[in-house]
Amino acid sequence: MRYLKLPIAVVCMGLIGLGGLEIYDYFQEIALLKAAKGGRLEEVRALLEKGVDVNVIPNNDYGDAALMRAAFKGHVEVVKTLLEAGAEVDIRSDRGMTPLMPAAQIGHVEIVEILLEAGADANARSDIGWSALMAAAGAGHVQVVQLLLRVGADANVVSGREYLDMRGKAKRGSSALLTAVERGHVDVVRALLEAGADAHIEGLNGMTPLKRAREHDQSELVALLQAFGAEQ
């Protein structure tokens, strides 16, 4: 893996006919990143056959490698091709995210399965302590949640830093269960509880699932949590 950054000096050299090889490599790597994101399988294969680094990371605000981009966009065959070419299954973005996290958040079940079969860490956490299970639970993807739980994803991890929710509101520490309760995903809440999620788990601000369900007037969730022993 290496970061993709073309120095200004080299760009200037390229403009006057020098540094051509590095200029060429740079644009080939950019092409791979774009092809992976766009799902252009034959282009991805052609670039890999030319020896383009499958794990190159762009030097931008996100640092998303080709596998991250393909996983996020749901391009199954591209994901398979990149992995076969040696892509690091848990390659990190600048935010500490792995490809499994966006795939789980979007609900790409097949890609989640492929990444897990390739050895992806179901308990990897981003820089803010977010996990693939939290992402899937928050988005309401019960099938992905169940899949992650079956391979040992920890249902009781609490994110350790302030983060912004989907509405851009700052929150302090959450868990898969707390997030699913807040967003009203009854099937996800049930799956987490049945898998052993702590019905009393607290976020870093002291919020519990039952308090959050009552705060959002979620009577069905209140009853469900109480059925699993939640008292406060």
How do the strands of the widest beta sheet line up side by side?
1-2
CATH topology of the largest domain: Serine Threonine Protein Phosphatase 5, Tetratricopeptide repeat
CATH homologous superfamily title of the largest domain:
Ankyrin repeat-containing domain
The number of helical segments is 13
What structural class is derived from the secondary structure elements? mainly alpha
Low-pLDDT windows of residues: 6-19, 163-168
Largest sheet: 2 strands, parallel
Number of domains: 2
The gross shape turns out to be elongated
How far apart the termini lie comes to 48 Å
Q: Which percent band covers the strand fraction? A: under 5%
**β-strand number:** 4
The overall average pLDDT, rounded, is 87
Describe this structure in words.
With 232 residues, the protein is mostly helical. It folds into 2 domains: 1-120, Ankyrin repeat-containing domain (Serine Threonine Protein Phosphatase 5, Tetratricopeptide repeat); 122-232, Ankyrin repeat-containing domain (Serine Threonine Protein Phosphatase 5, Tetratricopeptide repeat), CATH 1.25.40. It is 51% helix and 4% strand. It has 13 helices and 4 strands. The strands form 2 sheets. A two-stranded parallel ribbon has the order 1-2. Helix 4 (66-73) packs parallel to helix 6, helix 10 runs parallel beside helix 12 and helix 11 (186-194) runs parallel beside helix 13. It is elongated and about 60 Å long. It starts with a strand and ends in a 5-residue tail after the last helix.
